[in-house]
Design brief:
mainly beta, seven-stranded mixed β-sheet, 0% helix, elongated
Length: 120
């Protein structure tokens, strides 16, 4: 059983900052790419940022310069530092991990999501 547990969401004013965390646990052999996605009401889920095991990153254009993704491989945890938040950043943020289980089966796993609301 693999669990991805997000934390750090909440209500923030425009221009503010939040830091999301996603801890992965379970019978895991290794984790390759980890990432953050978001889904706003009435919209499709979209990529926010991804990070490989060796630290290479990729961001959606609208997040470049405002969001920073990082990871702690020893803790199987991925972070998303969000700054200069805008009302249009309001969404449920999900983390995703591409991993290999202890039984050598690979798969994609998602967290349950954490709500981020940007409003004055």
């Amino acid at each position: 059983q693999v669990q991805l547990v997000e934390s750090g969401g909440g209500l923030v004013q425009p221009g503010g900052s939040l830091r999301l965390s996603c801890a992965t646990s379970g019978s895991i052999f290794s984790i390759s790419t980890m990432g953050w996605y978001r889904q706003a009401p009435g919209k499709q889920r979209e990529l926010v940022a991804i990070i490989t095991k060796n630290g290479s990153t990729n961001y959606a254009d609208s997040m470049k310069g405002r969001f920073t993704i990082s990871r702690d491989n020893a803790k199987n945890t991925v972070y998303l530092q969000m700054s200069s938040l805008r009302p249009e950043d309001t969404a449920v943020y999900y983390c995703k991990a591409d991993l290999i289980l202890g039984n050598m089966v690979s798969g994609h796993y998602w967290g349950q999501g954490t709500q981020v609301t940007v409003s004055s």
